[in-house]
Structure to design on (405 residues):
């Protein structure tokens, strides 16, 4: 039987670089501003989208109408004058790019978020929300949840936020399937209102995709290939540090990024670093000249381990999210993770029952049409515009590098 012996070119292990990603972007602008050159949604066209690719959906956020692209990774809400308008609703267009939508937008703007922010600001939009994610896909993680929980339990941290929460997700059997740490609040006193909020969420992105969203195939190769490491303990590691900014806080963050872009090569990383360090700083108890631990935590030194993590974050750059999930990475996932498992199942079934597991798989697929995730729907939509020669190139690469013995 042929065996897959190819080696992945993706980095895996303790030295996977930290990556940044714009993971949510939302803004509004007056309807009159968005009507230009006879285009009802001029900005949508300017950003590289065709309204004909969207489907009409119901209204939301006080708007009576909307459009959605491929399962909702890009959404647009507005007031249709031919329909009843809610009292207090404004004559605005509301643009929303989810995590997958931001990956798609990243590709359309060639990763030049600074230029996009400048253009949108000059165009007259009002930023409503921006999420910036720091992804640590190293194995083991640079900062583990065990480290964070120990520091919190001992009170060895400083934070500009008044509270934090640790949330443990478990199955009814009691098996842990995820954990999140929040600094700040989306609501309540001082948490929102017209001024907006800043919330830091640290969570295990890999476990979220596997258990909550049932999307193990969406894991990046750097994460999936952790299973090939000799020290792999059976739990994928992808720790995401995500900061959510809304309303005035979102506007202030984008202004900070644009200001730092005048002097820094990594303005998004620099801006994120300054906010993260203010939101939480993990410390080590520090003694005075008399050998006594300072009562004032502002005199405690930052943890060297956390400082090393922050410094690596400060020098990191925006990733190209599109490369994290495109046809090449899907084929790599099939090659290195799916194919060996299929070979194993086929060998067991054929030896014991004398039938092909691939025939069973084909029958299952025909009778059980599963829904695609947003990432998969985006890839399907993108494939419609893919040149046949490009597709052949992907397939030839898949075949040439599989290493059949």
């Amino acid at each position: 039987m042929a065996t897959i012996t190819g080696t992945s070119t993706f980095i895996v292990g303790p030295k996977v670089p930290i990556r940044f990603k714009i993971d949510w972007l939302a803004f509004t602008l007056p309807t009159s501003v968005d009507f230009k050159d006879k285009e009802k949604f001029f900005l949508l066209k300017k950003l590289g989208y065709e309204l004909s690719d969207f489907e009409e959906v119901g209204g939301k956020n006080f708007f009576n109408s909307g459009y959605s692209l491929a399962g909702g990774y890009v959404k647009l809400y507005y007031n249709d004058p031919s329909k009843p308008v809610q009292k207090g609703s404004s004559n605005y267009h509301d643009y929303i790019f989810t995590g997958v939508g931001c990956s798609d937008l990243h590709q359309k703007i060639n990763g030049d978020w600074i230029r996009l922010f400048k253009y949108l600001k000059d165009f007259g939009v009002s930023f409503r929300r921006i999420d910036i994610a720091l992804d640590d896909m190293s194995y083991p993680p640079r900062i583990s949840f065990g480290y964070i929980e120990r520091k919190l339990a001992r009170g060895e941290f400083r934070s500009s936020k008044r509270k934090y929460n640790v949330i443990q997700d478990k199955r009814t059997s009691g098996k842990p399937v995820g954990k999140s740490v929040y600094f700040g609040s989306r609501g309540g006193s001082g948490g929102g209102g017209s001024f907006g909020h800043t919330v830091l969420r640290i969570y295990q992105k890999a476990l979220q995709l596997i258990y909550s969203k049932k999307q193990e195939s969406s894991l990046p190769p750097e994460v999936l290939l952790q299973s090939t490491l000799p020290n792999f303990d059976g739990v994928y590691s992808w720790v995401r540090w995500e900061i959510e900014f809304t309303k005035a806080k979102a506007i202030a963050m984008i202004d900070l990024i644009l200001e730092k872009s005048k002097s820094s090569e990594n303005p998004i990383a620099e801006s994120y670093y300054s906010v993260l360090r203010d939101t939480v700083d993990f410390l080590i108890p520090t003694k005075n000249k008399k050998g006594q631990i300072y009562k004032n935590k502002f005199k405690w030194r930052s943890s060297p381990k956390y400082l090393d993590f922050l410094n690596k974050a400060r020098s990191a750059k925006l990733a190209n999210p599109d490369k994290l999930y495109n046809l090449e990475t899907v084929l790599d996932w099939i090659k290195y993770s799916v194919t060996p498992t299929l070979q194993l199942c086929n060998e067991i079934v054929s030896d014991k029952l004398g039938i092909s597991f691939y025939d069973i798989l084909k029958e299952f697929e025909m009778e059980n049409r599963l829904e695609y995730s947003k990432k998969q729907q985006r890839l399907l939509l993108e494939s419609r515009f893919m040149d046949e020669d490009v597709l052949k190139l992907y397939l030839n690469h898949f075949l040439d590098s599989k290493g059949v013995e």
Remarks:
- The two ends are 9 Å apart (CA to CA).
- The longest helix spans residues 327-353.
- Residues 184 and 199 are 5 Å apart (CA to CA).
- The chain has a mean pLDDT of 86.
